[in-house]
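Provenance and format

Records in this collection were gathered into a single text stream. Each protein contributes a sequence line and a token line. The two records reproduced below are adjacent in the stream.
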Amino acid sequence: MSRLLIEASTPLCLLQDAGRFGVRHLGVTQGGALDWVSMSWANWLLGNALDAPVVEITLGGFTVQAEDYCLLALAGADLGAYVDERAITPGRSFILQKGQRLRFTQPFSGARAYLAAPGGFDAPQVLGSCATVGREELGGLDGLGRALAEGAQLAYSGVGGAMRELSAEQLPKLDSKAPLEVILGAQIGQFGGQSLFDVFNSEWTLDSRADRMGMRLLGTPLQYQGPSLISEGIPLGAIQVPPDGQPIVLLNDRQTIGGYPRLGALTPLALARLAQCLPGEKVRLAPVVQETAHRQQVEYLQRLARN
């Protein structure tokens, strides 16, 4: 077993995997890595299962010291990572010798970095996943939904692993200005015509009121003209519009049901890009048909499998 001692952390540094599935009928949300693409590449660098447990580091402020020889991999945001005093960029596996420190300072590109270890970090499975969801007190190192804290140990018992580096083509494009694609939802036709024009022809600013439950988009208020709704199941990426007309994109730690009208839902690939956006950044939305979104998702998963 290899171990890392956590010397500094924040409430935004969490143990995650792909999340919990098959439990929403119990009122339990999904959880899991917000940028599933970067999580997958971090695991790929070591030859892991793509959904093996990783550390999701948001905005930096995280430091670990190796208590043993450790093989690790890093993907996702550039959070100013250093091994001792040597800078290390995302998209590669690397070695920490006993006593060396890995620290993350502040975001330079993107918001979330993913740290992987051979076989994934050790943690108890709660309802089939170790994904940390603080609100529901599930997952994490102790199974109680706590963030990674100073003084705790990260351990892994996997062996082997690979020394790999992502090519320029493989690296996720965190600075892409391409619109976020939206699969249109059941209530799309009950928004006013001007609102439908504004949704897809305006820039939206990411509000500072954002967490793992959802991200609020600020812009021209949207007008819903339909009847009141009965609460219904909420999928990942759903774009709800509350009475103030400012859309909210619901993320992995969202509630399981809701009664606000929905424009639709972001595609999984669009969600991964949104997870790397910082408050104040501007995004655009673009409609996409379900068949196209499905094909893009399958093609990306096949690309990961081929590599």
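Adjacent record:
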Amino acid sequence: MTDLVIRPMTVDDVPEAERISDEGFFELDTRMRRTAGPAPERRSETHRAVWIERTRHLVRTDPGGCWVAEDDTGIVGIATSFRREVLWCLATYAVLPGRQGRGIGKPLLAAAMNHGRSCTRWMLAASADTKAVRIYHQVGFELHPQMHLTGTVDRSALPAIEKVREGSAGDVELMDSLDRGARGAGHGPDHELMLRTWRLLVSDTSTGSGYAYLDERGRLALLAASNRRTATRLLWAALAEAPERASVGHVTGANQWVLDVGLAARLELHQEGYLGLRGMKPPAPYVHHGALL
């Protein structure tokens, strides 16, 4: 076997990177599955297409943040990351099952983190995998436990939805301002991708502003607001549009307002994974997206 090579990811690498990611996370989900939890599933063709489009977007916006590990068998590991103003985010990090524990992951992560060397804030979403969490802790990330809510929304609990409208590209400046208040940096070019693939809801009143993206399945993907009241209004609006099986993920303890809404809607509360942070506190009121953060 030839020596391992860490090299920049190209757009042409993305379909194979998706396969590595799918293999890695399916193995992780199988290994970490709760007894009463649903059986792990591979990515659907729709989700696969979304993953590929998002990763190609990141390769184009941040070529210095996206890397693959390769040997004579092909690509065996991937890491994608991006900088937005003063914030560095890790989007995806995976090593092919059967190749883990062989010195592949650490140089990959180091290459991606080098892309954020000028940043003052750092952010990533981590699974509950002990090996990955240990690595993140070793490189200086504080780990904040995350919760998620799932289930069927009790429609009788829904309040009247007011002061929420459909959003558009004309709201990008407002959204970036809200992002800076919550996490210290706007999403910038990521809004182009999100507006193309997701639905946007906006609330902009004299007492507060906020926005929420609903993903291709109709589930909450990202939410930011200037205050809890506006965030609560937007979350109820998102749940009113939710599919039969609703889901609100990536909830930190700093966002108890999400629990107020989710539990009132009769959703089930679970704990899974961590939000990793350096140089910043958990954003609030804010529900991040696992990859675009």
